[in-house]
C-alpha cells in the first residue's frame, strides 16, 4: 500500500545559524550535545556555536565516516553531562553520527539491533530531540530517514526510520562558502544523483517527484558556479536547496548509480559523491529506455539536447567540475568488477531502479567505465 | 526568517480505507471517536467503519460548516466514552471539526483562545492523535494547519497551528466515486485555486512550489472527466491527489481569489469552492503582470494558449463543469461590493498575493464579475 510521507521543518536563509538558540528552545533543548568534526572545530565552529549557546557540550571527534565506536563515545559524553538534546553541525558524517547518538541515549538495545541489513531489525521509538545544520551540499541526510554506520564488527550497516528525520534543519548557505572546490563538486553530484535517482525510482510519487525535478534543474544551473566561484552566495544557496530537495527525493530510494557506488565505496573508501558521479551518466543511459517520459523531463531539466547522449553530457559536467569518470583512475581494476556487479545486482537500490540490472549488465556498465 | 515545513503521512490507494484499523493502531488509538456528517452516516459509512473498528464511538452530527457548539458536543462524547484518539471521515467540515475536538480534549482553555483572528491567540500544545479520511477533493485541510470554525458568538474564526496537521491521512479515491457532479466541480476548483494561489504566493518556496505546479497540471487534466464520468477511478484519484497537493501548496497562504471569496461566503453561505471559482480567473488576470514567470508556468500547466486570456479560460472551464462565474447569479448585488472589497483588501490573503490590491481595485474586479 503506497505510503507517502514528507517531514521537513527547515529554516533556510543566509545567517540562519543565528537562529540556533531559539530553534533549540523550540525543541525544548536546554543542554545540547554538539556533534561536529575536527576540521570544523579547527575552523572555530565550536567556539562560534558556544558563543550562541554557552551551555553546549561539544563532541568534535566525528570521523570521516561515522562509526558505532564514535557514536558510543559521544553518547557517553551526553549522559555524563545530562544533555537533553543534540545538534549536529557538519556533513553527512556528523549528522548521521548525531542520529545514532539520538538512538543510543533513548534506547536500551545495541545499535546493531536496528540495522536494517541485519537479520531481524527492531523498530525505533522516539529518539532524543535532534536539530541539524548541514555544512555540505550535500548528502540530504538532514531530511532523511537513514543513518549509515560502520559497526564495531567491521560491517557497514544502515538504520532506517522516520524517527531519525531531524526535527529541525537550519540551512545557512554561508556555512558552505568555505567548502573547497573538490568537495563542492563531489557533494553536489551526490545531491544531483539523489534528485535524478529519486525521480526515476519505481516507487516515486506525486509529492516527491516534483521536488526532485526542481532539484535537478536547480543543481544543474548552479553547480559549476558554486565550484568556480566559491563566494557566490546565490550558487551556494541553490546547491544547499538542491541537496535538501535531493534528501526528500531519496526518501523514495535510489537506483543503479547508487547500486554500483556503494560497493565501489566499500573497496575504495573514497568520497561517495565522487564515486557516484563516475557512474551516474552510465546508469542514466542504462535506464533511459525504461522510463522515456521521465528521462525526457530530466533532459529538459539538465539542458541535454534531445539528440544528445545523456551519459556523455553527465560525464562532461563531471570533468568540467574536476571529477573523474574513469573507475581505473579512481583506483579500481578488472579484478574488482565481478564483486561490485554482484553486489549491485542484489542491492535494494537495484530493486527500485526503473529496470533491475542483472550481474552481467552491471559488469558491462562497470567495465565500460574502467 | 523563511521557514519551510512539510508534514504529510499519507496512505494513498483505492481501498485504502481497509487500512484504518492498522493505521489507528500505529497511532496508538484503541478507542477512537469517529467524526462524520449525517449524509455519510445515511450512506452507511458509520456502519462500514464500525465493521472495521468495532470499538469506535460515532459523532455523526457535523454541520455543513463546523461550529464551536458541535465541537463541544463531540468532545463531550469523547470524554464520556474515554476515547483516546479521533478519526474524521468526510469533507472539510468533518476534518476541521475533528481538529477542534482534538484541541478541546487536550487543552484547558476555550477554543476562542486559539483563534488567530482574535486579540492574543495562545499557542497550541499537542492535540489528541488524529487521522483523517477525506471524502471530497477537496479542501486540502487533510494536510494543513488550519481549522475554520463558527464560534458561539457568531463570528467565523481560524485556528492555525502545525499541531493541527493530522498525523495520518488515508486517501481512498473510491470514497469519492459517489460525489455528485456539482460538488466534484466545486471542491475541484477549490483544490485548483489552492494550487494556483499557493504557487503564486509571495511566500511560496522551492519545496511547495513544485508540488503546487504539479497539482495544477493534474487537476486541469482530470477535473472534467471527474465531473462527467463519476465512476472514472483514475480521474477521481488524480483529483484526490491534486487536492492533497493543494493542501500542501496552501501552507504558503493564498491570494486575491480567496481574499474575495471568504467575505463573499460570509454573505452568501454558499459552497466555498463555487464562490472561489467565480473569482479565480479574474484574480489570475489581476496578478499576471506581477508574476509573469509563474503565470507562464501556470498557463503551460493549464494548457492556456500563450496569447489567450487566462480569465476567460478559467471562466470557460467553470462553465463546462457547471459552475457559474456571475456573482449576481450566485446572489450578490451592487450593495454588497463595497463591504467585500473592504474585507478583501485587508485580508491576510491579500498580503501574500503577488500584488496587494487596494479597495478600489477589488471593487473593480468584483463589479466586473457581477
Q: What is the number of E strands of chain A?
A: 8
Beta-strand percentage of chain A? 5-15%
Helix content of chain A: 40-55%
Strand order of the largest sheet of chain A: 1-8-5-4-2-3
Instruction: Give the rounded overall mean pLDDT of chain A.
Output: 95
The multimeric state of the shown protein is homodimer
Radius of gyration of chain A: 20 Å
Major beta-sheet overview of chain A: 6 strands, parallel
When the domains of chain A are counted, the total is 2
Largest interface: A-B, 28 and 28 residues
Uncertain runs of chain A are: none
Q: Would you give the CATH topology of the largest domain in chain A?
A: Dehydroquinate synthase-like, alpha domain
Please write the string of helix (H) and strand (E) elements of chain A. EHEHHEHEHEEEEHHHHHHHHHHH
**CATH homolog superfamily of the largest domain in chain A:** Dehydroquinate synthase-like - alpha domain
Number of helices of chain A: 16
The secondary-structure class of chain A comes to alpha/beta
CATH class of the largest domain in chain A: Mainly Alpha
* CA-CA gap between termini of chain A: 40 Å
CATH architecture name of the largest domain in chain A = Up-down Bundle
Shape category of chain A: globular
Amino acid at each position: 500500500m503506497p505510503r507517502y510521507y514528507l517531514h521537513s521543518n527547515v529554516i533556510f536563509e543566509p545567517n540562519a545559524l543565528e537562529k540556533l538558540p531559539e530553534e533549540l528552545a523550540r525543541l525544548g533543548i536546554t543542554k545540547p550535545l554538539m556533534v561536529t568534526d575536527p576540521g570544523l572545530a579547527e575552523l572555530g565552529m565550536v567556539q562560534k556555536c558556544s558563543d550562541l549557546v554557552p551551555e553546549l557540550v561539544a563532541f568534535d571527534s566525528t570521523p570521516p565516516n561515522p562509526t558505532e565506536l564514535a557514536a558510543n563515545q559521544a553518547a557517553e559524553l551526553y549522559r555524563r553531562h545530562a544533555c537533553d538534546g543534540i545538534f549536529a553541525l557538519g556533513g553527512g558524517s556528523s549528522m548521521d553520527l548525531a542520529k545514532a547518538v539520538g538512538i543510543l541515549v533513548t534506547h536500551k538495545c545495541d545499535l546493531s539491533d536496528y540495522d536494517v541489513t541485519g537479520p531481524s531489525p527492531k523498530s525505533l521509538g522516539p529518539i532524543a530531540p535532534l536539530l541539524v545544520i548541514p555544512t555540505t551540499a550535500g548528502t540530504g541526510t538532514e531530511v532523511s530517514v537513514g543513518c549509515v554506520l560502520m559497526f564495531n564488527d567491521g560491517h557497514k550497516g544502515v538504520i532506517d526510520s522516520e524517527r531519525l528525520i531531524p526535527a529541525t534543519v537550519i540551512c545557512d548557505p554561508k556555512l558552505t562558502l568555505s567548502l573547497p572546490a573538490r568537495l563542492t563538486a563531489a557533494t553536489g553530484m551526490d545531491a544531483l544523483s539523489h534528485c535524478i535517482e529519486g525521480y526515476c525510482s519505481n516507487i516515486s510519487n506525486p509529492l516527491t517527484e516534483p521536488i526532485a525535478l526542481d532539484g535537478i534543474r536547480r543543481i544543474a544551473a548552479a553547480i559549476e558556479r558554486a565550484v568556480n566561484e566559491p563566494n557566490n552566495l546565490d550558487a551556494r544557496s541553490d546547491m544547499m536547496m538542491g541537496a535538501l530537495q535531493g534528501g526528500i527525493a531519496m526518501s523514495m530510494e535510489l537506483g543503479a548509480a547508487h547500486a554500483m557506488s556503494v560497493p565501489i565505496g566499500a573497496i575504495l573508501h573514497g568520497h561517495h559523491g565522487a564515486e557516484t558521479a563516475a557512474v551516474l551518466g552510465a546508469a542514466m543511459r542504462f535506464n533511459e529506455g525504461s522510463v522515456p517520459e521521465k528521462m525526457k523531463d530530466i533532459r529538459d531539466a539538465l539542458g541535454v539536447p534531445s539528440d544528445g547522449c545523456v551519459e556523455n553530457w553527465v560525464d562532461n559536467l563531471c570533468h568540467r567540475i574536476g571529477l573523474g569518470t574513469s573507475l581505473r583512475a579512481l583506483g579500481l581494476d578488472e579484478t574488482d568488477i565481478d564483486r561490485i556487479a554482484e553486489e549491485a545486482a542484489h542491492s535494494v537500490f537495484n530493486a527500485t531502479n526503473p529496470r533491475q540490472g542483472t550481474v552481467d549488465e552491471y559488469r558491462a556498465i562497470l567495465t565500460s567505465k574502467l
